[in-house]
Amino acid sequence: QGVSLGDTFTLRCHLPRLAAWVWLYQEGGLSYYKGKEKEENAAEFFFVSTEREHAGRYWCQYRVSESAEVSMKSDPVELVLTGENTGTVDSSERVRTGTNVTIRCWNKDYGATFLLHKDGRSAPIQHLVPDDVGAVSFTLFGVTPADSGTYRCSYHPKNYSFLSSPLGDMSSHPFPMEVMLGMNTPKYLYPTGAELVSRGNLVVAVVRGCAAVLIFALGVFFVIDDRSLWIRRDESLGGEGI
């Protein structure tokens, strides 16, 4: 369960038997005791304003009235607190294929571990620990259209493994990125096999076109030349008859 810092929350212990005393234990932390005026099958523990120390793993335990028998501890429940926001980015939203993109994340909690998330991916795609400056720069090298999407930052404060910054709402400053294809798309230094085939086909088409034009021009030339020859012959024969 995720709860924001400063919020009120309730942990409820569901009991398989009617109990008069219920304990709530926090791993490595405090224990909370609650006596009940009447035996009930549930007990609620209220926390008015959550702090970092409340994050962690909890167990319930109970005892039936007029009995020295204490139950086994329940299955644990983990409480994750969401804290301060992170910030991003210093890069444009539209980039070209092959570009290196930098996404910058920061917060005021030095020593935190930063995580870079991409919407649609269940696990973080990168994680970094800053060098005592409270900020990190994630780099995506040579992006492709497959890298298009929305990216977000989160962090885990040092020594608080169950505390995580917000993720999934607008307060986490989502960074949408679209990788564009176009005339200015960077090309490989050496052409790929597909490019070689394409260029070869283009050369063949150009050669065939030029050959067709040349043959047509030669045909027209021979027709005109042949007609000129017949005209000269007719004129010559006409002169002899006179």
* Beta fraction: 35-45%
The averaged pLDDT comes out at 67
Query: Which outline best applies?
Result: elongated
CATH topology of the largest domain: Immunoglobulin-like
CATH level-4 homologous superfamily of the largest domain: Immunoglobulins
CATH class of the largest domain: Mainly Beta
Number of strands: 13
- The CATH architecture of the largest domain comes to Sandwich
Profile the largest sheet. 6 strands, mixed
Quickly count the helices.
1
Order of helices and strands: EEEEEEEEEEEEEH
Low-confidence stretches: 84-92, 168-172, 182-200
Protein name: Immunoglobulin domain-containing protein
InterPro entries: Ig-like_dom_sf (IPR036179), Ig-like_fold (IPR013783), Ig-like_Receptors_ImmuneReg (IPR050412), Ig_sub (IPR003599), Immunoglobulin_dom (IPR013151)
Keywords: Disulfide bond, Glycoprotein, Immunoglobulin domain, Membrane, Repeat, Signal, Transmembrane, Transmembrane helix
Organism: Gallus gallus
